[in-house]
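Aim 2 progress update. The chain analyzed this quarter is reproduced below.
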Amino acid sequence: MKMTQGGFNILRASLSRTLTQEQVDGINHYVSEIDKDGGISYAQASYVLATVWHETATKMKPIEEYGKGQGRPYGTWHKNSKGDLYSFKNGNKKEAYLYKDYPHLYYGRGDTQNTWFDNYSKLSKVFGVDFLRKPELLLTREWSTKATLYSMKNGLYTGKKLSDYINTTKTDFVNARRIINGVDRASQIAKYAEIFLKALKSY
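Predicted structure tokens:
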């Protein structure tokens, strides 16, 4: 699997009149890593690329969430009765961690905007890398790519995974958004996926 010149021409015609070298490099990097994986179909690869295109604001490189989660539960410190700062581990808001133990807010970082303490913790266990202590590692191309592919294949973010929506019997690009974030911008990302699929199959 690779993105040919014909494929890039399709992307330029459908997504952007021009692609920066950074975008081209990012697309080639992902396609290469997907090809090395060996277990991701063309349709699944297209959805991964579409997701990264959207989540990185078309930059095709790991970025921090704009605003660093300001105003969101995972991007806010609170103070308990002892005066200790804390934030929540996940969206249930039933568990918290203390600033003195982990002095980081786990707002969106990387190609798929990894959020919440619990998700950073899960990725740490999967890869044997302490993303809780060094969340900035998810802003590196190496670890962001690994986290993205693993999480989308295995349902780390929401419990939903690529094969639930894109497999040998169906290609549901719209509902595949549930892998990342409900149905937020689902139709738009599905359109991107169709374009990437056409591009990947171009020679």
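The chain has a mean pLDDT of 95. The longest helix spans residues 21-37. These observations will guide the mutagenesis experiments scheduled for the next reporting period.
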